[in-house]
Sequence to fold (343 residues):
Amino acid sequence: MFSERTLPEFNTSAITLTKEEALILYEDMILGRLFEDKCAEMYYRGKMFGFVHLYNGQEAVSSGVIKALRPQGDYVCSTYRDHVHALSAGVPANQVMAELFGKETGCSKGRGGSMHMFSAEHGLLGGYAFVAEGIPVATGAAFASKYRREAMGNVDSDGVTACFFGDGASNNGQFFECLNMAALWKLPIIYVVENNKWAIGMSHYRATSQPEIYKKASVFNMEGVEVDGMDVVAVNAVAKEAVARARAGEGPTLIEALTYRFRGHSLADPDEMRAAPEKEFWGKRDPIKKFSSYILDKELAGADELADIEQKVQKLINEAVEFAQDSPEPDPKDLYRYIFAQD
Fold:
């Protein structure tokens, strides 16, 4: 079924990234990939517990979209596959790793774990375990930004929200209700469908009557865009256009990024549902290898510079593991803390 839909073409040769922009994207993608590899190692060594859903293969979507946002004032809403979204949003790797270890120094104080990353400081509205659960939260955040600006007169309130979810969520009621409201009210939000072809073990093509999700935007008179989610240059260009529209008060955009996860649904999934030819097809389209070739071809950086970035990131991740291991467990006396808002 994977060959039924071709990847959209995008003229990346017409896109000019500066060296700084390219290396920011590259480092962020490397951080996501190596972080998740380390998570797999730690999980199988018994350092992490519960369900852990990794992001390997989808890095171009997170980096391409989130790096098109402002580091302050914009919002990111995630799913249960949220570690890399958190990293792209600027949450320090040691805080993300500590959260995965269930430690007090984690970004959710060790209470959230893998599926519930949160950081008010970095505009990360949370990871959500239930499918489509984050869509209403993100829509509410976008409404708040618009309300502060138009009803309360705060001219500085021009924040944009990026809402990530998978192809399976596009069949849920929240998707349709929230996109309808966002279009009616011209909310400053980008709905990003990370279409990795599988909703746990259900093929996308068996689960929806309209496999081309971006076309559903037309029902709401909303801008809908299809993009190669394995090409960070294309994703970033599309995201920048969507952010500009949202910030200018022109309303929401639905972006469908065609991507693929290189691992099973979670680390508890033996990944026996997907056919070997399908995995091979997408494995050859590794977004990091594709982008490194782009950087080298455009002479934005040399191979030695890219290698230095990888070494720097690996050192950062190793330090994050040490930080997590050395951090304290939550104190039992704080069992009821963080349940309600506190001064």
User: Anything to note?
Assistant: The mean pLDDT is 95.
